[in-house]
Each structure stands twice: as structure tokens, then as C-alpha cells.
Amino acid sequence: MAQILNPTDEAELRELIASANSANTPLEIIGHATKRGLGHPVAADVSVDMQAFSAITLYEPEELVLSAKAGTPISEISSALGAQNQMLAFEPWDPAFLLGQKPASGTIGGTFMAGLAGPRRPGAGAARDNLLGVNAINGQGEIFKTGGRVVKNVSGFDLPKLIAGSFGTLAIATELTFKVLPRPEKARTLLIFGLNALEGGRAMRIALTSPHEVSATAHLPQSAAALAQVEFVRGAGTSVTAIRVEGPGPSVSVRIKALRELLSTFGDIEELHTENSIRLWSEIRDVQVLTHNPDKQVWRISVAPTDGPRLANWAESNIGADALLDWGGGLLWLALDATPDAHASDVRGAISSLGGHATLVRATADVRARVDVFQPFVGALAGLTARVKYAFDPNGILNPGRMAHQDRAGGLNGNPL
Amino acid sequence: MKMPAPNPDVLSRRSETIEKLRQIVPGEGVIVDEEELRAYECDGLMAYRQLPMVVVLPQTTEQISKVLQYCNANDVKIVPRGAGTGLSGGALPLADGVTIGLGKFNRILEVDFENRCIVAQPGVTNMAITQAVEDQGFYYAPDPSSRIACSIGGNVAENAGGMHCLKYGLTTNNLLGLEMVLMSGEVVRLGGKHLDAGHYDLMGVVTGSEGLLGVITEVTVRILQRPAVQRAVLLGFDSIEQGGDCVADIIAGGIVPGAMEMMDRMAIDAMERFVHSGYPLDVESLLIVELDGPEAEVDYLLERVGKIAKDAGSTFMRISENEAERQMFWQGRMSAFPSVGRISPDYLTMDGTIPRHRLPEVLAEMTKMSETYGLRVANVFHAGDGNLHPLILFDANKQGELEKAETFGAEILKLCVRVGGVLSGEHGIGVEKRDLMVEMFSEADLDQQQRLKCAFDPEGLLNPGKVYPTLKRCAEMGWMHVKADKLPFSDIPRF
Q: Where does CATH 3.30.70.2190 sit in chain A?
């Protein structure tokens, strides 16, 4: 029977972890528990619920900085930022659609711990680029702080980078401080119709290497475009390559015009204005246009932008994938018919010579218990990563197994780390 | 400044070590003569000097791997060194240590415009990265003042910044990949041309680690398309407060300028007398705000910034009308250090970061300290990101004045921490600010950082005596002896 603990303050939480550490009791750390489907299933009977740690503790819009307790709902952060016309720069994607959860649920701690970064990532950085400081408790129940509240900081090791994306396996964050940015005044999106993945990739790269400050680029094959809510896209009857421009009104108009000229050789071009543009990008960000079949297994693959479109082609023709390209081709989402190994050897085999990493984002718990969810390590990285974990949580009580590797060849001395 | 006591055993084995290093790096790659070692006795923090035991200048990753492996097995300390321009003593040699100079790693390996990145060896200068791509309209964004000389590997080690960090980020935000050698001699690759890590973000923690975690042998950074238009505006104010308010109002207005620099009266005077950039001499604070992007955007934002400045009480405003004028505006600011060098025999460069809105009180407090210590101070400030560079003027030939300047500097940094800031924005802790770390961090905070070092360098041989005030052996912090990859309880899942 799973037990849920609800610490109400830092001292209580510290005590709880210290005694779990002494007793070697594994702990699962949860906020709203909406992202349990990400990563491997955690091997713990006791869950620590962080929802009591909920408050915005500092928000200075003119300093572009916000601090909040880890369990603060992401929706509360978004409203506070929205009221000041600001936003999280990394445009975190919401896994709710893929994981069958309520949209816009989850906490700020979960958002950083899962390292969720959306379409704005190539220009505005990932979650890790925006995390400035963390108050946390390590696996031995020791309270520590790291980083600060200012952007420019070279005072000791940059542990916030390591904590972002660590899925609670290194330390439990109690409070996070992060950078925020003004919301752009206007957004518009150019749509180019009927390109294949390679042509779409080329169009995106031309847009991104222009001086017109493109803030997002994605390529939706016909199957993806057909799933969009935005009519211009859904009704296209063909693939759609989307290029977003944001900023002050006069600037957006001029840049859109310049991009239209630059990309005119690619064929028909349409434009989405602010409302439709926002809607389309939220569908791309939250992966709503990849598949509506809840049984499909989903991969998220980060590669060099020139490799993404080729990989998409390969996956469509060789393993029957539905594909979606973001980040100018650097991010590839694949939806595949469910198999016991989730096509892991195919997918990882395809990227092994390219460099990059593939993460299994959606599969049943039993598949995620068997297959490497995260990219297996090469060479000395396995040992180094294990030692980094040990430096924070020597007895392995924090979210044990969540980021574990099942691949015996890549593990430590054949042990499933 | 107390450095770790040299290990007599290692010193007694010096000739043996030299012989071994010569086997690994043949030819003239091993430097042992006192005369030649002299060139390596300090970095940009020239107040501290120490002759290294040996300097080795390897040419391949394999040589570095073998050097580290040998030193690790024989208890020999390593100090990595890029161009030696660092300002905090991160490359200060150790009497019983081998300094590894990366100067021969000076090649650009690949320029990849399609993926908007460049792969370079760590000894390539920051400026050379931009020069390699500027004919196609690209550049590398982080621009520390030393960019003509400083190396990209050193930039990674110190997480170098520059004038344009608010909009374009620091080194860490522009770095895509690394190859590095661990103290064990193992070579690891982190990142690449793709974004983000597939597991823990080890590259993120290596960036800014001041040579304590590994020796960097290859770097991949992103390059950006140069903005279509860049224009700068000079804004003068009767008080520091008004200048500070203007900065806050610009950002609160939703504008993120490419750069936003501020200076106080003494700095303005020193620069203007030296360079003649057209700075007004009758203001208490001067802002340079640079806007970049498409012409329409720059024009629109300049108008808005002008209005905000007027509302904040600006008494002087001048917009650059052409590229030559923009360059001229910057020339003064870029010459901050030599300008101050002209009005004082010596100066110390400080590097704290503060929350922007605390600037007026920090400067007021600094003025008081300046009177107390009887030393002048000029201030230049990366106002956009809160990074403050007070320049403390002193004369090293006067008895006790260097010590006085250092104490003054330490007081300033403590003040930065007190108002919610940090000890270093972009120069690093090194040896210079090492003993101030306790002002910012508790023992538990520092222990956690040092335990991370144990994961990379369990014997504590990589650049010891830097960054952390107390050298702790890993075993003291509960670190169990880790042999090869074998950890205790390795049969249970750990991540």
C-alpha cells in the first residue's frame, strides 16, 4: 500500500528525508503527480507530496525575476506573469495531452525538474537556461542553496543547471528562482504548404539563418496538419511548415514581409495573426498534432537541425511513424504503433551515428520499466553520471529508478543503474 | 592568500615527472627552465604569482588524457590554463603542480552554417570565432572585454559574459557541446550540435567550473545572425537614482535592449578624457542603451526609450546616426580599464552582481567606503543584467595601499551579497574571491558543491586551492572510495 507524506515546511521535510535516508527507504517525490508517466516508474512505496510548498515568494517584473515554492501550481505562475505581460521564456510544453492529464495542471517544481522546453527553446533557452537559483534538500536530508537571483553569476558550481531536468533524483527542490521575459506585443505565423520534410527543413533553416529573428519553426506533415484546430492548417489537405515571428507590431510586419519574400520560392504562403498563431503554437508545443491515438508510443528526439528531417523521412517509411518537427528540425516527435520494446533499437540505432538523444515520452509503465526511457550512456559517462548521483543522494533514496538505465551493456559493471 | 601546501614527495619526484611528461608530449612541449616558466607565473590577476613545477603544452586530446592519467596516479596536481587572461587567478600555478597550457589547441575544426554552430579547439580566441563566420553575417554573442585575447575554452571555464548578456545570454547559454578529459584520463563528450542533454546536464555544471572538473579539449558553440541594425543612445542623468529608474522603466516597459551600460561620474570623466566619445561631463550617471534588430523595430524602440528616459528625468540624449558614431559611443566604455589606468597608477577590478534596483544604495554605500578607505572608485555597470565593475584606484608603491584596496574590494563584494547579489558575475571566484565564498554560502552549501567535485575528481588534484576556501578530502565528506565504476549498492537502481 502506497503511503503519502505531506510535509508542511522545510524542517519537516528535512527530517523526513534524513530518517528515510537512515532507514534506506526509497521516496517518490510528487507535486500534482501529473508527470508520473515521464521517465521510468519509480520503485518506492512512500510518496512525498510537495503541494504544501506553494507560494510566489518574490516577483519583481522590472528585474525579470520570480521566486516560488516548488509546489506552486504552474497555472498560478502563468496568471501572475500574465498580469504583468510577462512569461516563462522557455515556453514549457504541457505533457498533459500526451499523458492523459488535465491541461495546465502541474507545478513549477515539476516543470523545471522535467526540463520541459517548447518551441521557443532554440532562441530563448531551455528550462535550465532560465533557472537562476534553487533551495533544496539532498538525499541525506541536508538543506543547501545554490545559484542566486541574478542572471550573471559565476560564484561556485552552477548546480541549478544540473538540478533542472534531474526529475527529482538529485535533490528535492523547495524553492526555485528563475528568469522571466516580457511577452511579445504581437505574434504572426507564416504557413508554407505542401513541402516534404526535407524541403520543410530547408525552409526552416533559411528562416532561422536570416536576420529576421524567427521565434519558432515547425514542420507538420499532412497527418499532423489534419489534427490541428486552426482551420487554415487543418483544411490544408497537405503538409504545413510554420514560421513564427514575435515582437513589437511594426517590427513584426516588416519581418513577416521580408520572410515572405525570402521564402517565396517554396510556393503558397499564408499568414496567421496573433490569436490563431497562439493557438497553433500551443497545439504544436503540447504535441496535440502528432497523434490522437492514445495507444501510440511517443518518442522525443533531439538532433542537429539538418538531421531531423532526414530522420523523420526514415521513420515514416521504415517504422510507420507519424512525425512532427520543431526547433527548425532539431526536435523530432514520433508516434509509433505500440510494441514491447517501443522500437527502441530502431530509433536509437538511427541516431547512434548522428549524435543527439531520444527519450521515450509515452509508453505503458511495463514498457517503461523494460526499455531505456533516456538515452543510454556512451563510455565514461555512465560512471560519471552515477558518481554525480552519489554526490547528492548516496543511498539512492530520491526517486530511485526514475532516470535509471536498463541497458546492461551501457550500465555500470553490468548492473542496472 | 594561503595556497595548499606543496607536497614534498611530489617536489622530490620532479625530474621523474618531467621525464614521464616528455615521453607523453615529445619535442618542446614540456617547459622546465625557470626563465621560461616565468611566463606562466600568473594570469590576469597579477597581484598573485607562483612558478609552476612544470608547464606542459600538449597538442592532442590523447596527450592530455595520458598526462592526467599519469598525474592522477602519482598525486600530481593539475592547473589548466587557456590564454591566461582570467581576472580571478583561476590559472594561478601551484608550486607542486603541472600547468597544462591549451595554447596549441588553436584550430577551428568546423563551421556549420546550416546548423548555426562552430566547432573549435579550446585555445581559439573568442574574437576568432566571430571572425571565422562574419563574412556570412554571423557572430558569436558573448563578448567579454578581453575577447581579442581570451580563449573560448577559458570562456567556458569562467562562463564569460560581456555587454550583451541580458538579451543574448552568457557562455553557458551559447554552448552546445564539449569534449573534456577527466582527471582519471577518461574522455567524455557532452552535447553536440543538438540541444539539451539526454540525461543530467553535466555540460551546464562544467561551464563556469573554473578548471576544477576537467580539461576542456573541444567546444561547440552556437552562432547568430548579426542583427540588421544596431543603434545606440547616450542618456545622461543628474543622479544615479534617475539612471537606475530609467533602466528599470525600460525593462518594465517590455523592452530588452541588446546592451545597456551605465557609468558614474568618475568613470565618465576618465573615459571621456581618454577617448573623447562625446560623453557629457556634467551628469552624475550615463547610460548607453543599444537596440538591435530590424530597422523598423529599432526606430520604434528608440522612440519609446527616448520617452521613458525623458520621463525619468534625463538631461542629455544623443542617438547614434551612423555606424561610426555608434562605435564611438562604445569606444569610451570599451576603454574603461585603460582610461582608469591613466588616472591612477594601479586599480583593482571588482565583479559583483546585484539586483538592479539596489544600485543607488550600493553606490551610495560605496561612496562612504571610498571616504573611509581614502581610495577613489570608478563604477562601470552592465545595467541590463546587474553586473557591477567597481574599479578601485590605488598606488601599489605606497605602503599598505594594495592591502587597503583589497579590503575595500572585499567590503564591496560583501555588500553585493547582502543586497541579494553574488560575488562574481563573470570573472569567477578563482583565488581572488575564494575566501569570500563563506559570505554567500553556508558550510552545507559548499559541501554539496565540493561533493560534486568528488564525482569528477575524487583525489582533488584538479586546480585545488581555487574557488573553495577550505580544502576537504572527499572521504571527509562521506565520499566512499570509488573504484572504477563500482559504487556501493550498485545492484539497486539509483537515478
A: 186-285
Burial degree of A355 (CB within 10 A; 0-12, 13-18, 19+): middle
Model pLDDT, residue B72: 98
Compute the radius of gyration of chain B from its Cα atoms: 23
Smallest CA–CA distance, residue A336 to chain B, in Å, is 20
Residue A379 in grid coordinates: 563510455
pLDDT digits (tens, 9 = 90+) for B350-375: 999 999 989 989 999 999 999 999 99
In DSSP terms, which residues pair with A193 in a beta bridge? A240
- Put simply, whether B273 touches A (Cβ < 8 Å) is no
Per-residue model confidence (pLDDT) at position A414: 31
**Which residue do the cell numbers 509546489 mark?**
A71
End-to-end CA distance of chain B: 40
Enclosing H/E stretch for A147: strand A143-147
Residue A292 has φ and ψ, to the nearest 5°, of -105, 5
Q: β-strands B346-349, B352-353: how paired?
A: unpaired
Residue B486: its pLDDT value, please? 52
Q: Give the three-state DSSP class for A91.
A: coil
Q: What is the ipTM of this complex?
A: 0.96
CB A413 to CB B486 under 8 A? yes
The domain A1-183+376-417: what is its CATH number? 3.30.465.10
Residues of B within 8 A of A361 (CB-CB) are none
Asked if the model's pLDDT at residue A272 lies above 50, the reply is: yes
**Residue A204, CA distances (Å) to A243, A305, B53, B138, B407 in order:** 7, 9, 53, 17, 54
Q: Is A70 on the interface with B (CB under 8 A)?
A: no
Considering the domain A186-285, what is its CATH architecture? 2-Layer Sandwich (3.30)
Do A152 and B382 count as a contact with CB atoms less than 8 A apart? Answer: yes
Q: Which residues of B219-229 are buried (b: 16+ CB within 10 A; e: fewer)?
A: bbbbbbbbbbb
Q: Is residue B162 within 8 angstroms of chain A, CB to CB?
A: no
Does the CB of B221 have a partner CB in chain A at under 8 Å?
A: no
Domain B108-225 fold is 3.30.465
**CATH no., domain A297-370:** 3.30.70.260
What residue spans define the domains of chain B?
A: 8-101, 108-225, 229-336, 344-432, 442-495
Which 8-state DSSP code applies to residue A172?
Answer: E
* Chain B contact for A273 (CB, 8 A cutoff): no
CATH class of B344-432: alpha beta
Rounded Cα distance between B486 and B229, Å, is 56
- 3-state percent breakdown (helix, strand, coil) of chain A, nearest 5: 35, 25, 40
User: What pairing do the DSSP bridges indicate for beta strands A46-49 and A3-5?
Assistant: parallel
Confidence (pLDDT) at B491: 46
Q: Which residues in A lie closer than 8 A to residue B301 (C-beta atoms)?
A: 248
Q: Which residues of chain B have pLDDT under 50?
A: 484, 488-494
Q: How far is CA A289 from the centre of its chain?
A: 16
- Residue A140 CB partners (closer than 8 Å, separation 6+): A17, A18, A21, A393, A394, A395, B478
Residues in chain A with CB shorter than 8 Å from the CB of B382 are: 152
Cβ separation A374–B444 shorter than 8 A: no
pTM for the whole structure: 0.95
A411–chain B nearest CA distance, Å: 9
The separation between CA B406 and the C-alpha centre of its own chain, rounded to angstroms, equals 19
